[in-house]
Amino acid sequence: EMSFDVDRIRADFPILAQKVYGRDLVFLDSAASAQKPKVVIDAMVSTMESRYANVHRGLHWMSERCSDDFEAARDKVAHFLNADRNEIVFVRNATEGINLVAQTFGRKTLGPGSAVVVSEMEHHANLVPWQMLRDQQGPELRVVKITDAGEIDFTDLERQFSDGKVKLLAVTHMSNVLGTYTPVERLAEFAHAHGAKILIDGAQAVVHRAVDVKAIDADFYVFSGHKLYGPTGIGVLYGRRELLDQMPPFMGGGEMIRSVSYAGSTWAEPPYRFEAGTPAIIEAIGLGAAIDYVSAIGFEAISAHERLLTDHAMATLAALKGVQAIGHAQDRGGVVSFTVEGIHSHDVATLLDKQGIAVRAGFHCAEPLVRRLGLESTTRASFGVYTTTSEIDALATGLRRVQQVFGQ
Ligand code: PMP
Known about the structure:
Belongs to the class-V pyridoxal-phosphate-dependent aminotransferase family. Csd subfamily. The chain is α/β, with parallel strands linked by helices. It starts with 5 loop residues before the first helix and ends with a helix. It is 41% helix and 17% strand. The protein has helices at 6-11, 38-50, 61-81, 94-109, 128-137, 154-161, 184-193, 205-208, 213-216, 241-246, 281-297, 299-318, 345-353, 367-372, 389-405; strands at residues 19-20, 23-24, 26-27, 88-91, 115-119, 140-144, 166-172, 197-201, 220-224, 235-239, 257-261, 264-267, 323-326, 335-340, 357-358, 360-362, 378-382. A hairpin with a 2-residue loop joins strand 11 and strand 12 (264-267). 4'-deoxy-4'-aminopyridoxal-5'-phosphate (PMP) binds at residues 93-95, 123, 125-126, 172, 176, 201, 203-204, 224, 365.
């Protein structure tokens, strides 16, 4: 039996003690950005108070300490994903990681006559960069269908790959709207069997379960620090070493070069080739602390806790008249979207907010998906390590009040 002391975990997050509108905060918006444990805040503050300097170029004590801490954060990320340290590129967020791949790997290998496949459940971050690449360079952009339960339709996937043009499958590991986990091992095997590479958007998944890029056989994997209890401004691109080696730079500037003259420049080795300019030093160190934090709790315990919360939420919402949960995948994580009959999601969210309950409403940066579901918007409750079943009960009570305001 897993022991999971949620009260002890809550004590690690100073913000959760806040009141909003004089009420206890019920924070059900972790899928947008998670709250930060004290250890993350402390790691960042203590760096700034005791050993802050620019990294990699200083020959002085501060710069060496700071560079060590920054590179130690890279080691933590590498260990976290089961990658090598030189396969870890620091970026600003998942969005930048995907744009980096589109504008380097994509520009080099995807032109007219080739195709990129995404799924119907992508966040805009894993759709728009491929549209931009299509418009710049001419690869086709294809969209694989999902089933009504919210899972990848493998029959359609076969169809999309049947002419041999597909060079890249870019797919989410977990939907931020439906909560669906995609079978990434199977998708990677499928892509590779068809001569394509796979990019996996792990922005949601990495928060909820252990990820092993080698076991998945991923070519590219991206995530953001701020959803993983770390700071904003730092994200990760994992790239398979032999792919990164062949990729041209993304942005030019300091840190990413080997030598520079007016005639031309030569590039540093990965990952530095892709890290032009001063990196997000403090934020990387904060992300390292966040990884230490979740690793100490352990993903077995985190997943079990979130499964309990999600099951509780699905059962609780199912018992509410006029409330409809969206997405019924077999394998799903701690995100539950729903509609309330006759009430717009923005009204639902605004009236919940007045009761101290934070949820998200709208398209969730996945407009084509929400439309594919035949909806104009949804309300979304999402869970973190600190979420309790009583917060989900508070959501249910809150939803009843919203319905009462609307005379239901
Ligand atoms: N992909 C998914 C599945 C997401 O949920 C998000 C964030 N909502 C992103 C990508 C983009 O993350 P970021 O804004 O941190 O780049």
